[in-house]
Amino acid sequence: MRNTRSRPGAELFAADPEDRPLAAVVANPTKIDPGTHESIAALCVELGWAEPLWLETTIEDPGTGQAEKAVEQGVDVVMACGGDGTVRSVAQALAGTGVAMGLLPAGTGNLLARTLGTPLEMDAATRVALTGDDRTIDIGRVRVDGADEERAFLVMAGTGFDAEVMGNTPEALKARVGPLAYVVSGLRAIRGRRTRVTIRLDDGPELRRRTRTVLVGNSGTLLGGLVLMPEAEVDDGLFDIVNLAPKGVAGWVAVAARVISRRRRGHPRVEHWTAERVVITADDPQASQIDGDPIGDVTEMAVRVDPGALVVRVPEGSPAAEILPES
User: Fold this and answer.
1) pLDDT per residue over 157-204, tens digit each?
2) InterPro entries of this UniProt entry (predicted)?
3) Separation between Cα atoms, residue 125 and residue 49, nearest integer Å
4) pTM of the full predicted structure?
5) Angle, to 10 degrees, between the axis of helix 36-46 and the axis of helix 122-131?
């Protein structure tokens, strides 16, 4: 169910300071350029908002605690300024609160921003975060190896080749060449061996498969505009799941051709399913990732969809959503 709400903008120029809406920025200081703080603050004032709260992430807390603090302060929107990891950490705190998340892309992938049509330029993205519409989207909840804690994700979670590439891509290389860094790491990992996994979808039977990677997607968008799961929607209450099991370099070439063509069928080693819940159990621990961040070697990944849990600010008048009146 798509759900959006128009937000206040330039019509508040003359509002008294105490009546102006308040934003918070949760910023990863390692991802932003000098002057970003000042330019965002200036745009807030220009558009009739109060000067924003500025909360920087740390190694110990990559965004969740800062977003919780912002909610406690009664902000109208929390802007996640960083890469996909910062976005995910902020979303972890905002899910279920009704407080909107704005996306200020400053990472390498910025996959949720690309999916929702958020501008990748900082000033334009800030304007969307302050004056755009609200859209409710699903999030994923992941439990690893039976742990008590569930982790949130917004785009994809997976095991195998995909996670190996993410884990073996140096930050310095990403800083120098951007998304091309993942291609370099992918070429190094392409000759890896397939492994055996068991996949269970909802309450269905267990499926035994050989695989190089299993991905559970809330969105199907990859770097470079490639779409791995062409029917995935961020607000349909379902995951799209894909199993890739190519054998050798020739197999990967065929799989890549299938991905570029955006067909769900056409190669025997590419399988697609949809489900609300997925459990992936590997015979041997596999490299795993959520939203592109490595989480170590995992034997079991249990994933469930949390429908409509997060409000995200999107470009005003987005054709993907219905505009609802202010409540």
Assistant:
1) 999 987 887 776 767 766 676 666 656 566 566 666 788 999 999 999
2) ATP-NAD_kinase_N, Diacylglycerol/lipid_kinase, Diacylglycerol_kinase_cat_dom, Lipid_Phosphate_FormReg, NAD/diacylglycerol_kinase_sf, YegS/DAGK_C
3) 16
4) 0.82
5) 40
User: What is the mean predicted confidence (pLDDT) over 35-60?
Assistant: 97
The H or E element containing residue 260 is: helix 248-261
Cα–Cα nearest to 314, from 113, 150, 180: 113
φ and ψ of 115, to 5 deg = -65, -40
Find out whether 262 and 230 touch, Cβ atoms under 8 Å. yes
215: three-class secondary structure by DSSP: strand
β pairing state of 100-105 and 77-82: parallel
What is the H or E stretch that residue 152 is in?
strand 151-153
**CA 156, CA 165: separation in Å to the nearest integer?**
14
CA distances from 68 to 7, 20, 26, 94, 295 (A): 21, 21, 10, 7, 23
Domains delineated in the chain = 4-137+308-316 (3.40.50.10330), 140-307 (2.60.200.40)
The number of residues in the chain equals 327
pLDDT tens-digit profile of 249-268? 666 666 666 665 555 554 55
Please name which of 156, 163, 184 lies closest in space to residue 172, comparing C-alpha atoms.
184
Q: Determine the average pLDDT of the residues in 234-252.
A: 84
Return d(Cα 46, Cα 314) in angstroms, integer: 20
